[in-house]
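Below is a filled-in request sheet from our internal design queue. Each sheet records the structural input a requester submitted and the sequence that came back. We keep these sheets so that new team members can see what a complete request looks like end to end.

REQUESTER: design group, bay 2
PRIORITY: normal
MODE: inverse folding
CHAIN LENGTH: 149
BACKBONE (tokenized):
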């Protein structure tokens, strides 16, 4: 797999006590990438969040749309937060050392349900935006992308 990945982060839902399976270690920040550098007005921006365990043996943690938030800002103002889409609870995922887990989250700027899922960006808005991923308090580096006119 190309590109850098992040270390798995500790989650209160991680299972412990199973033979050969432990809790994921908290070592580094999550990684976030946009699928494109820019998007047309009708396109849905996609964000790819990665996590990988550094535990010596297999481990488990909750990982999914319910445990990863993507926040998009423009000029320092939040215009979309994936938590507004009320994602289902994250399922427990088994991690193997060095094997990345990928989660893709899409921003449907035209969503009508649930309320708030589309964000607060006016129709036709364009320009440069920033996005970050958050997993249990850890924040990814900021990624910049553009919405075209």
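RETURNED SEQUENCE:
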């Amino acid at each position: 797999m190309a590109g850098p990945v992040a270390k798995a982060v500790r989650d209160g839902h991680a299972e412990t006590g199973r033979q050969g399976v432990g809790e994921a270690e908290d070592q580094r920040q999550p990684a976030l990438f946009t699928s494109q550098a820019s998007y047309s007005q009708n396109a849905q921006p996609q964000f790819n969040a990665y996590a990988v365990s550094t535990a010596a043996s297999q481990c488990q943690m909750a990982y999914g749309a319910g445990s990863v938030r993507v926040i998009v800002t423009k000029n320092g103002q939040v215009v979309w937060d994936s938590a507004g889409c009320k994602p289902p609870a994250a399922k427990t995922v088994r991690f193997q050392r060095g094997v990345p887990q990928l989660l893709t989250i899409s921003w449907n700027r035209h969503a009508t349900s649930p309320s708030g899922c589309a964000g607060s960006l006016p129709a036709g808005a364009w320009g440069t935006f920033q996005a970050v991923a958050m997993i249990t308090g850890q924040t990814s580096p900021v990624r910049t992308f553009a919405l075209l006119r």
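SHEET NOTES:
- Confidence is low (pLDDT under 50) at residues 1-20.
- The chain has one domain: 22-147.
FILED BY: M.R.
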